[in-house]
Each structure stands twice: as structure tokens, then as C-alpha cells.
Amino acid sequence: MPRVRPSPVIPHLAREQANAVELYLQYKGYHWNVGGPLFRELHLLFDEHASTIFETIDPLAERQRMLGGAAAYTLESMHRASTLPHETGLPATTREMLERLLAAHHVVIEGMHEGFKAAEHDADPGSADIFARMVQAHEKMEWFLREQLLEPPQIPEEGGRASVVAEKGGFNPTLAGSHSPSPFPGHPLTS
Ligand SMILES: [Fe+2]
Questions:
Q1: Is the confidence at residue 150, as pLDDT, over 90?
Q2: Predicted local distance difference test score (pLDDT) of residue 189
Q3: How remote is the CA of residue 134 from the centroid of ligand 1, in Å?
Q4: What average pLDDT does the segment 7-17 reach?
Q5: Where are the domains of the chain?
Q6: Does the model's pTM come out above 0.90?
Q7: Do 104 and 142 contact (CB within 8 A), yes or no?
Q8: Helix 39-66 / helix 125-148 crossing angle, nearest 10 deg
Q9: How far apart are CA 27 and CA 53, in angstroms?
Q10: What is d(CA 185, CA 81) in angstroms, rounded to the nearest whole number?
Q11: What spacing in Å lies between the alpha carbon of 10 and ligand 1's midpoint?
Q12: Do residues 9 and 119 touch, judged by C-beta distance below 8 A?
């Protein structure tokens, strides 16, 4: 039986699996520990994003198995493989929470671009599809965090300029209870 060559996409899947585990824990930590005037808003938002990220872990791990690799599962191996900024303690402010999460999403988005390119280069449309759909979910979460950092909130006008909403105090009220990002727009992944 011919030996199957190891797929060059596996390291990208393994790295993003580890990043997903780490980012899931980071979101949960902030969900539990956030406080202040935006408590309810951020407590709920962080949990929604945690759930979205949790759903990405299984497909990333199982894809490695499909390509002939082994899926790591210990926290130690996740920590070693992750490329996210290392969390050593709780942020001092909610703004810092949002900034750290944004930085983490930027790392993941860049990593998924790399994974997508590697999959395309290896003629692996299945993995390319996984990365393409997951990167959309991360871009959406990144957008929601970015909007939370606008102060006062800005409403884009036609033509690209933004106007200030004067009567509100620092967060976008349209977010409350209305955010359910689908991790995989179009169709669900099987597990
Ligand atoms: Fe909770």
C-alpha cells in the first residue's frame, strides 16, 4: 500500500485548533470576570463569541485526522502550538479586554489566510473551505469588538463618512441581544 504523504496543511489546522482552544478560554475568562457599566452587554457578547469559537475546534481537529495526522488534545500541547499573545492575568479595564481580543482575532485571521493559501497550493478544497468559512466568523467577531471600542458610537453615512450619535454613552445599543454570528455562513459543518 503506498505511503500517504503528510499534508502540508496539517500544521495550519493544528495551530488554529490550538488558537481556538486558547481564544475560547480567553473569552470565557472575560465573560466571567467582566464588570462595569457595560457588564451585561460584554458578558453576553463574550459568551456568544466563545460559543462560536468552540464550534470551530472540532472541525479543525477532525480535518487533521482526515488528512492523516493526529489531533492534539492536551492543554499543554494546545498552549505550545498556539500563536496567540500569552495571557498572564486579567486585563485592568474592559477596553483592554476588547483590545486583547482584537489582537487575538488578528493573529487568527492572519493564520487562517496562511492556512487557506497552503490548502489551495496543495489542491485541498476541503481545508480551504474550512479556513474560508472560519475566517468569515472571525472577521465578524473582530468587527463587533472594533465597534465596541468606538466612543462615542459612529454611524457610517453613505459615501463613507461617519456621524456621531450624541445621546448615547459609549456603546452601540443595537448590539444588545441581537448578535448571533453564524460561524459558518451558508451551511453547517458536520462533526
Ligand atoms: Fe456563563
A1: no
A2: 37
A3: 23
A4: 98
A5: 10-175
A6: no
A7: no
A8: 170
A9: 9
A10: 27
A11: 33
A12: yes
Ligand 1 center from residue 27 Cα (angstroms): 11
- Which pLDDT does position 168 carry in this prediction? 37
For CA atoms 74, 80, 84, 89, the dihedral sign is: positive
Say how many Å lie between the CA of residue 151 and the centre of ligand 1.
27
The yes-or-no verdict on residue 112 having pLDDT over 80 is yes
**How far away, in angstroms, is 25 Cα from ligand 1 center?**
12
Can you tell me whether residue 140 is helix, strand or coil? helix
Cell 468587527: give the residue.
Answer: 143
The rounded distance, in Å, linking the Cα atoms of 22 and 165 is 36
Give the Å distance between the CA of 60 and the centre of ligand 1: 24
50 Cα to the center of ligand 1, angstroms: 10
Residue 149 C-alpha cell reads as: 471600542
Mean pLDDT across the chain, nearest whole number? Answer: 85
Could you tell me the pLDDT band of residue 5, with boundaries at 50, 70 and 90? confident
C-alpha triplet 160, 165, 169: angle, nearest 5°: 135
CATH superfamily, region 10-175: Ferritin, core subunit, four-helix bundle (1.20.1260.10)
* Residue 119, number of CB atoms within 10 A of its CB: 25
156 bridge partner residues:
162
C-alpha cell at 51: 460559543
* 92 CB-near residues (< 8 Å, 6+ apart): none
Task: Write down how long the chain is.
Answer: 191
